[in-house]
Amino acid sequence: MSLDVNTLFMVTIYVEAVLGLLLLFVWVQNTAIHAVAWWGFAHLIRAASVVLFGMYGSAPDLISIDLANALLFTSFAVTWTGARVFDGRPAEPVYLVTGAVLWLLICRLPVLAEALDARFLIATGIITTYTWLTAYEFWQGRSEPLVSRWPAIFMLFAHGALFLLRTPLAASLPWAPSNRMLGSVWLTVLSFEALLFTISIAFILLAMAKERTELRHRTAAMVDPLTGIANRRSFLQDAALLAKRQAANPRPTAVLLIDLDHFKSINDRFGHALGDRALEVFADAARQSMRSSDLLGRLGGEEFAAVLSNTTRDKAMAIAERIRESFAKAAREVEGRPVCATVSIGLAHCENVALDVAEQLAQADQALYFAKERGRNRVEVASLDMVLKREEKSSAATPAAAAPVAAKSAA
Questions:
Q1: How would you class 381 by CB atoms within 10 Å of its CB: exposed for 0-12, middle for 13-18, buried for 19 or more?
Q2: Distances (CA, A) of 158 to 135, 153, 211, 261
Q3: Which of 19, 170, 327, 395 has the fewest CB atoms in 10 Å of its CB?
């Protein structure tokens, strides 16, 4: 099996250029993802290096070998820089050109002028280093739930390892081909592996960028941008899923409805910016006071809600008191201002019955009403007696409210 070098060069140049332009086109559609631009330029630089390699024999070695290799190393360095930028780390201009500068300095040394094996080993080592550094950058950001990140890490690491098989060190392997025919076949396999890697890694990087954009859109739709906790929609969806999971095997569950006391007064006295900061302080205090399995969300304005699953009434009361006390302590002074903010909490608890989120929120709202009525900065637990008292007050207030209307009608 022979290798048509000219065909391989033409295909490689075409593929690298097209992929580079494709990545840049995607970046133009969403310029917020700067890493895509880095990756696009990396492919274009690699295409330029292959063009220079193809000029071997018709152009000086300084251009067709030295400069071509310098551009090739820079393209891998640009890919590595794109990986750093993708995960929020700064670009490193010095390391971006280190490989190219190192090569241009070393290849001019008289000792290495005729040592082709040593030069090839150095060149391969530079490319492998940048490739593995790129894989390492993606590995560092593995906490972000991007499925495409893992095939990118695997392919970059594997490609770096396979690239080492092009070096003279491969001859020391027990299964290394020793005759010309098998050597040609092996070279063909490695060359086409490099081409397939170029194509596949470009689309995987595109998939990562697209996946991150979709993830951020989903997060923006489900997370309150001020406090960083679930918004109303997300909280109610999560609570409904919890209720569905517990339908077959009900667990004791508590629902908290929480409201910041005199929040309008805080905004009026200290400004809306400090009021927003007070909401952030509450979200932090509540998160630290709750278990990781509990749900917390902002329903709107200064109103929050929480679902405490698999908990007794006493434990739920203890968590609610911990939230109230920790926030009162944290909000005694906000941004150097004596805010002294507090919260009132209504608690509804259901014991071994299917969780009805809407019903529990309604009961917690009744309890929150009594917490406000009884002086604020307190926790009240919903009870049947509490509901009856609220209904009695509503009935008593109805005739008084209707009297002015009747008087106006008679007039």
A1: buried
A2: 10, 9, 23, 59
A3: 395
* Sequence-separated (6 or more) residues with CB below 8 Å from residue 200: 155
**DSSP code, position 89:** P
d(CA 327, CA 212): 34
Longest dimension (CA), the chain: 115
Q: pLDDT higher for 389 or 268? A: 268
89 residue type, one letter? R
Please name the amino acid found at residue 181: M
| Token code pair at residue 345 | 């909490």
Q: How many whole angstroms separate alpha carbon 324 and alpha carbon 98?
A: 56
Q: What is the mean pLDDT of residues 269-295?
A: 94
The pLDDT tens digits of the residues spanning 112-147 come to 767 777 788 888 889 999 999 999 999 999 988 899
Within a 10 A sphere around the Cβ of 400, how many other Cβ atoms?
8
| 57: helix, strand or coil | coil
pTM to 2 decimal places:
0.69
Query: Tokens 């494709």 sit at which residue?
Result: 22
Tell me which residue of 126, 79, 81 sits closest to 107, measured CA to CA.
126
Helix then strand then coil, % of the chain, to nearest 5 = 70, 10, 20
Strands ordered across the beta sheet of 343-350: 295-300, 303-308, 253-260, 343-350, 379-381
Which class for 134: exposed (0-12), middle (13-18), buried (19 or more C-beta within 10 A)?
buried
Rounded Cα distance, 243 and 249, in Å: 10
Task: Give me Rg for the CA atoms of the chain.
Answer: 33
